[in-house]
Amino acid sequence: MHARLLSLLMILPLSACAASAAAPTNPAAPASAAVLAGPVSYEVRSWGRLLVRWQVNPDGSGEIWRGARQQKDAGAISKYRLRLEGDALRTFTRNVEDARLATREGIACKKEIFDLPYGSITWDFPGARQTYAFDAGCRSEAGDAAQELLTLANDNVENLAKIEATPYMVDPAGPR
């Protein structure tokens, strides 16, 4: 049952609202819809355990880390290289920019469920670093809308990126 629920959480929108957001240092420095201005990283955890983490760089290169899905391997992290190219990179860039704009002022929400996944996305753009922290149990209309945008970006990475078939590294203990 636990593995099945985890699989569903990875497919469904993982989180619904912001717990907090750090204001960008230069909110007037948006990314172009065609060019990623800097690295974007995303991470989702549940009960402290990493479910997924990725980073996409402006050239479309990046990494995705996946937490073990089997309880016997709990804590193990498989690390893969990835690449987004052409239309896939443009679509990803558009989705993360929409999410950045939607979350730059932070989003208020009400904590309704206390044991759902949580995480953050960070735009590390020159002069405009912004982090949006979210929690699937924290709900609001604006938070749900922002999560739809984050889900699109995550789907871009999971479904459109060319991800290496085998990990370049498996860390049995996970990040420290």
Question: How does this model look, in words?
Answer:
- The chain has helices at 2-11, 86-103, 141-160, and strands at 17-22, 40-46, 49-56, 61-67, 77-83, 110-111, 118-125, 128-135, 138-139, 162-163, 169-171.
- It has 176 residues and is α+β, with helices and mostly antiparallel strands.
- It has one domain: 2-Layer Sandwich (Mago nashi protein), CATH 3.30.1560.
- The strands form 2 sheets. Strands 1, 2, 3, 4, 5, 7, 8, 10 and 11 form a 9-stranded antiparallel sheet that branches. The protein has a two-stranded antiparallel ribbon with strand order 6-9.
- A hairpin with a 4-residue loop joins strand 3 and strand 4.
- It is globular.
CATH topology: Mago nashi protein
CATH architecture: 2-Layer Sandwich
Order of helical and strand elements: HEEEEEHEEEEHEE
SS field, number of helical segments: 3
The beta-strand count equals 11
Instruction: State the secondary-structure class.
Output: alpha+beta
Per CATH, the class reads Alpha Beta
Shape: globular
Beta-strand level of the residues, as a percent range? 25-35%
The total number of structural domains is 1
The helix fraction, in percent, is 25-40%
Mean pLDDT: 80
Give descriptors for this structure.
176 residues, alpha+beta, Mago nashi protein, 9-stranded antiparallel beta sheet, two-stranded antiparallel ribbon, 3 helices, 34% strand, globular, disordered N terminus
Offer a quick outline of the entry.
The chain is of the alpha+beta class and 176 residues long. Helices cover 27% and strands 34% of the residues.
Topology of helices and strands:
Layout: H1 2-11, E1 17-22, E2 40-46, E3 49-56, E4 61-67, E5 77-83, H2 86-103, E6 110-111, E7 118-125, E8 128-135, E9 138-139, H3 141-160, E10 162-163, E11 169-171
Antiparallel strand pairs: 1-8, 2-3, 2-7, 3-4, 4-5, 5-10, 5-11, 6-9, 7-8
Helix pairs in contact: 2-3
